[in-house]
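Margin note from the TA: students keep mixing up input and output lines. Inputs are the sequences; the output is the structure of the whole complex. Example:
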Amino acid sequence: MRQSKLLLNTLRESPGDAETASHQLLLRAGLIRQLAAGIYTYMPLGRRVLRKAEQIVREEMDRAGALELLMPALQPAELWQESGRYEVYGPELMRLSDRHGREFALGPTHEEVITTLVKQEINSYRKLPVTLYQIQTKYRDERRPRFGLLRGREFLMKDAYSFDKDFEGLDRSYWEMYHAYHRIFERCGMNFRAVEADAGAIGGEGGTHEFMALAEIGEDTIAACTCCDYAANLEKAESGSSSKFIIGTGTGNLEKPEKFHTPNIKTIDQLVASLGVKTTEILKTIVFVADGTLVAVVIRGDQEINELKVKNFLGAEMIEIADPADVQAWTGVPVGFVGPHGLNLPILLDHTAAGMEQGIAGANELDYHYRHLVPARDMKQAKIGDFRTVKEGDPCPRCEEGTLKYYRGIEVGHVFKLGTKYSAKLGATYLDASGQAQSMIMGCYGIGVSRILSAVIEQNHDDNGIIWPLALAPYQVHLIPVSHNDETQMQLAMNLYRLLQEKGIEVLLDDRDERAGVKFKDADLIGLPARIVIGKDAGQGWVEFAERRTPGIKTTIPVEEVLERIRMNLGLALFP
Amino acid sequence: MRQSKLLLNTLRESPGDAETASHQLLLRAGLIRQLAAGIYTYMPLGRRVLRKAEQIVREEMDRAGALELLMPALQPAELWQESGRYEVYGPELMRLSDRHGREFALGPTHEEVITTLVKQEINSYRKLPVTLYQIQTKYRDERRPRFGLLRGREFLMKDAYSFDKDFEGLDRSYWEMYHAYHRIFERCGMNFRAVEADAGAIGGEGGTHEFMALAEIGEDTIAACTCCDYAANLEKAESGSSSKFIIGTGTGNLEKPEKFHTPNIKTIDQLVASLGVKTTEILKTIVFVADGTLVAVVIRGDQEINELKVKNFLGAEMIEIADPADVQAWTGVPVGFVGPHGLNLPILLDHTAAGMEQGIAGANELDYHYRHLVPARDMKQAKIGDFRTVKEGDPCPRCEEGTLKYYRGIEVGHVFKLGTKYSAKLGATYLDASGQAQSMIMGCYGIGVSRILSAVIEQNHDDNGIIWPLALAPYQVHLIPVSHNDETQMQLAMNLYRLLQEKGIEVLLDDRDERAGVKFKDADLIGLPARIVIGKDAGQGWVEFAERRTPGIKTTIPVEEVLERIRMNLGLALFP
């Protein structure tokens, strides 16, 4: 491609509202342009990258035995009403009416459509399992679109859905997709982790993994092992230490709980300051409302309670910290003085608290605390479990050697066991070998195809621009004659241009009448993997070869070696 | 691909609401399924065909130098208000509001978006010309969706837009697209004509061609030459005879106009019946309202007036047949007795009327007509022109030998000179060489990619099913072992399956445990170009080879010849 024909306008400055490196570079390198908040046009260069990502996804889905189809974006509202999501989904679901007043949703996802389709097409266990996928434009009316392609309102997704006759089958389908996702993100040159995650709003039973591209700007925190491949969302992460806390046993030698006066001392910080104790000597008690019922959770004073773990332990639908007034009304105790000893609420005791020999806690009486509270002796009615948020440095729950470390991640993929959530509601059944109708067992699997671009740029750039991994680069080689007016240079450039194209290499030829500095700056910004500069040594048949990922290293080579350099350094197979 | 894994359900019966062969076969062969009126899911087999059509379009667009981008479907309403189309487009434009109440349109076309984009990206003549295209989902809320993919509400289109600095450039861009369209539809194996057409609602200046797939079910009538490649929409078509009518000159010998009594004789049929004359002896006069002004059009009694030609001749925005009451109010004459002689209206005289030696016409007086009206003598104030609709058998306006014939056509593509319609309204200007701001000169070019499937099936089927052209066939070869339980057959089938795949052939293996009759019926329906049946001679190494387009011809060949047959008969290049 000749750069003069590419409708490629680079920007020296970042538009003001672009906060992240990837958003800035997508705009500056002329890959996308904004049409409205969260709605973008892919310019020719960006379209090429997007198509490459699409193609990698498609190839790996096909390899995994999934079948490609294409479902409509316009979805009848009745389907969403049937599944119960029409109201639940809220304002993120874009809605419209047709000329006859029939309501439609612009699909953010396709569980309803695919389940209805498969219900019509499959009736026997003989036709199961099947995994179907599409690469299709999705719509979500984000409250606050941001970060360019990361949180857009119109975006490209690959969504896949598996249908099995039993949960063993779902396991197989799930892991098939899981491994395909590994291949996809590896091929995209992405630094990612497959992260254990919570089911979330999409609902369903069983396991789920999020594929997270590691990046500072990520909106999710991940706890991952420094040694093995254990990784989980912070809210889901477990720690090797949690269950290793041994419940104190030496109760015989310990004093009885002693109530003491602590006027106006309501917080852990105040306790620490006034008593001169450590936070690890305090039993922290927080009261939650879970599905309308109060419950107290007790944890060691230096730890944080993980609401999700409490919610899952209780099997609750909804959980939140209780309103202080409600706590006082129910227990008769002001919040700052609630404690596990003598409280008339169910108590959940985190392992960290259960493992304390003794501790200080509220005495369930205004301006009083207890000391010498022994969990093993004084909180026998409590249920013990893992209710804490892991911390960096915690031992890994999987391996012996590693410790947990926090990372920030961008969710680029998601695999999810749905079970019968949709098949039961929408009546997608099959007849089993004995002729009985059974609900199909489903899984769903998403990849944010347009998101891949942002995530990869976020991980692959420097101060001067993008550093494209070969597999996603819009072109593989940038050919830059230094002077547009130098006939020798232009002749050599054209010869090389034709030669590389004949060998099947995707070449961008900077044939613009621009100063060398402008060309080099643009080339850095666009970030093609290899650059060949044809300059003053062109007459002697020498050119300069450089790779974008190692900007400091430039070698002058005879033009005859160009192909071999590209083959060796980029690892490209050439046409014969 | 193994057919047992393809989620392919054929239907023996056509669904009741499918009126056309292509709609029926798309459903019966399991290529598409309806989700809502005019909204379809492409099943795996249909998705493959759609992708092949996409790829042909993409390759030819790229070859023509057009750049691919991808614009959003969600378009801010303000852009449509700016172009003036938000109201004009009417209920076919699907509209919605986002969570903040901002209005959007779901794009049926992208003139507004692309013009705004190019306005931002291009400011100098140096960056022109450029042609941009996308392959993208479009939305149009058809009042009456029908014929499957032919008139849908969500469909796949290729739309391209050219930007030039002058009309000569537009000509070049236009014909580049015109020729690319020829290549595309030829590669799709389509029988089509490029048809001269009228500008229509999309508006603009200059030429336009519709690419019409010839098919009985087409909604448009085309007049095309039997010899040369002249073809035009019926409303636009000209005839070689139109301008060849010589205005009668022998006025000296003819009698003066004679008024005669014709009580209650208001129509041509009544004149013919009561006077015993031919329709060709009558001057038919119809009064139109063009932009609020009355005008009379006179044509020979056996001909039909073409409103579009009248409209274009007058340069009018709106035209319709005048209300009889208005005619009487304005001229004082009841409609059945209006005639060209002595009428106080402007008169347009069609060549067929101008060429008559003499004729009969209304006398502009109740119950009276004239005879011996001589156009060359009595209608000197009239403007002569081509105001008639061509008829079959008319001489071709282009070549000497041919005559016109009517065809029905399905519009599959459209190339259109827009001129400055959008660039002027949306302010898309460039600076010319002298630094003056000029409006860009635009063209737009559409192809109904999903429509191609319907058109091609409409042209390529028989009573038993589809007959895919090789370029669009979902698979190229259908491999059918007759008996699923015969190990020899299955072994040979598997060997051939692997061999053909290794050679780069797209094979569908019917590995289902079905009766042979079912397999053959399905194979006919699906319509892959070549079929290899592995039957009772499998043990001797013989198979049956047949092509779908010649169902009567089946040859038994040694298995060693299979590759050569495929290579020769289908014209496929094989991998080494």
